[in-house]
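Structure tokens please, single chain.
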Amino acid sequence: MTAPQEPMLVWERPEPPSRPAPSPLSRERIVRAAIDLADRDGLDAVSLRKVAAALDAGPMRLYGYLSTKEELLDLMVDEVYGEIVPSGPAGDDWRAVLGDLSRRTRQAALRHEWFADLLGSRPRLGPNALAFLEASLACLGEAPAGTVMRVVGTVNAYVLGAVRREITELRAERATGMNEQEWQIASGPYLTRMLATGRYPALARVIEGEDANPDFEEGLDCVLDGVAPLVSGGR
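Here you go.
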């Protein structure tokens, strides 16, 4: 009995042979058009039909290059990972490498706000995503596998949470017409009344502190400081 054939993922599936057409296609052109749509109008604007229209092509032609919208999203995410991974050697200073990858991830997510919406589920398996993971893991050298995964997972969780919060604030500002400071001013009288009840002493102390809103870099430093004992103890 013949064993069932393993399905070929989009990363391994060859593209159709090029042929003369009014609008020549390639996966690269399809992905770029989809990213442009998502950057301009959000992830909900991305569909195979709309991408085909942007390329002046019939929707059915796209199915020669990918099978589903999910494959298109995978390709889009991997393209952004390509912007994150440095072109040269990542180095072996774990703190410098993880810090640099964290900053580059944030910068890419701010350029492509939809990118953060697609992270945090199952790992992406495209070549650029795998290169990002390889750089993250390799900088920790010969530390035990469990230590490596805990450190990288903790740093990535912070970056994803911080970036999503920042993007959510940007979207709220566009939706309401108020930036964070203006919203705080508008909410101030209510919050003052609530704190005056004495029911939230810890919250009152934090809000009255001089540095109640640490920025991305400060939070990143705290996380890297926190995982440092794992790294030094696990080598």
